[in-house]
Amino acid sequence: MIRVGCSAAPADRTGRWFGRAARARGLTLIELMVAVTIFAILMALAVPSFRDAALGARLTAAANDLLASVQLARSEAIKRNVTVTVCASANGTSCAASGDWDQGWIVRDNAAAEVIQRQQALPEGYLIAEADDTLALSFQPIGIGASAATFTVCRDDPVGSQERVVTVTASGSVYVTTTTTGSCP
């Protein structure tokens, strides 16, 4: 019998040789430290961006809630053929005499004295301020509002650079724009 390719290192079941030539697989301490450093740098860059994205989403949600309530008030005024009011409300049953829109608001049928929709207060630190301190907007049965209004939805603490501005025209149309002035009233 002739032996060919005999060596001192034994072979495993797959026929691969192991021994001194085989290296232990894994990470060295230096490789691990480099990976941790790169991860820390990426997280330092990503966390502020994530906060801005979360802030933008919350502001957009609050602005869209207000927009939807104004559109509902206008459409209900037309549908019911009565004056319908959207107003700031702290208790969810009647219009507030003072305060801001961030305390919540209601959509109210003035003829039936019925609350059509209730909107709860905004989370702590978020504000909705109306430029002229208007606490109520009324829509006539033909869908036209009594006056125009401009609402600023923003973060009070900490002040962010993002805002949403909800504009209601005297004709009853409503739209939202994004600004980055960062001046929360």
Summarize the entry for a quick read.
By secondary structure, this protein is α+β, with helices and mostly antiparallel strands. The protein has one domain: minor pseudopilin epsh fold. The protein has one helix and eight strands.
Explain this structure.
It contains 1 helix and 8 strands. The chain is elongated. The chain is of the alpha+beta class. 21% of the residues are buried. The strands form 2 sheets. Strands 3-2-1-5 form a 4-stranded antiparallel sheet, with helices on one face. It has a 4-stranded antiparallel sheet with strand order 4-6-7-8, covered by helices on one side. A hairpin with a 7-residue loop joins strand 6 (149-155) and strand 7 (163-168). It has a single domain (29-179), classed as 3-Layer(bab) Sandwich (minor pseudopilin epsh fold). It starts with 28 loop residues before the first helix and ends in a 6-residue tail after the last strand. The chain has one helix at 29-80, and strands at residues 84-88, 105-109, 114-119, 126-130, 136-139, 149-155, 163-168, 174-179.
